[in-house]
Amino acid sequence: MLYKNIAKKLRFRINSDEFAIGDVLPTERQLMEEYQASRVSIRKAIDELVTMDLIEKKQGSGTYIKQKEIVHMMQPLRSGVESSQEIGKRITSEVIEFSIVYPDTEIAQRLKISPAERVYHTKRVRKINDRPQIIEESFMPVALFPELTIRVLEHSKFEYIEDKLGLKIEGSYQEFSPVLPDKEEEQLLNIQNREPVLQITSLSNFQDGTIFDYSVMKFKASEYLHAMYVHRETQGPILSQKKLSTPDNQIHSSAPTEDTLKFYPVQ
């Protein structure tokens, strides 16, 4: 339906740097001209964004940006707590799994450890303003974090690692893919009809290249937007030259390097 597509485009614009919270949205007539749509379609699109609590109508004044969703831009790495605080939202974590196990071959390879080395196996449901939006399953070497507790995981892992332990996180290699949730995940995220979720697989490393965390996160796609902004002029390798090798023996860097990935001008 046309109005759904318009609502999707406006949602992206609202969550971008085009608008700040409190800004007024273009008028119905301006949006009709921009999207070549009828007044009915524009109003239905706006009503949908009102329902999502992103905008609010003020009688005789206009439609204003009320808030933004959690958005991960291609900027410096942020924890969930840091990202939510930046836009004035509250994130909480419910730990539903916390155990110490021996990793299988795949997990050991990803963490670059021996299968004989124990790891924490944890699972958290992360809620934004009390609404479940992320399921995060993680594996972390016990040797690196011998005093890790459930209480730590109820808050920010990054904050604990950097502020409490004094360790410096360099970055994270991430892969994105859409997947269908299983029954348990549907219940945890309050979704129906097997609505697809966005899966992000993450390998995080310290400055010396040590991998300290392997996580698989599943995001409620209808409420969590991931976006990137690509500069037209950006060229060549950026950031560090450290490399991480993945289990399939492909070489990836914790950030783009000349050997793996370059950014070229948009044609």
From TrEMBL:
Any GO molecular function: DNA binding
Gene3D superfamilies linked: Chorismate lyase-like, Winged helix-like DNA-binding domain superfamily/Winged helix DNA-binding domain
Gene Ontology biological process terms, A to Z: negative regulation of DNA-templated transcription
This protein's UniProt keywords: DNA-binding, Transcription, Transcription regulation
Keyword Transcription belongs to the record: yes
Name of one Pfam family that matches: GntR
CDD domains in UniProt: WHTH_GntR
SMART domains for the chain: HTH_GNTR, UTRA
InterPro entries, per database record: Bact_HTH_transcr_reg, Chorismate_lyase_/UTRA_dom_sf, Tscrpt_reg_HTH_GntR, UTRA, WH-like_DNA-bd_sf, WH_DNA-bd_sf
Domain HTH gntR-type: start-end pairs: 1-68
Domain of life: Bacteria
Protein name as annotated: GntR family glv operon transcriptional regulator
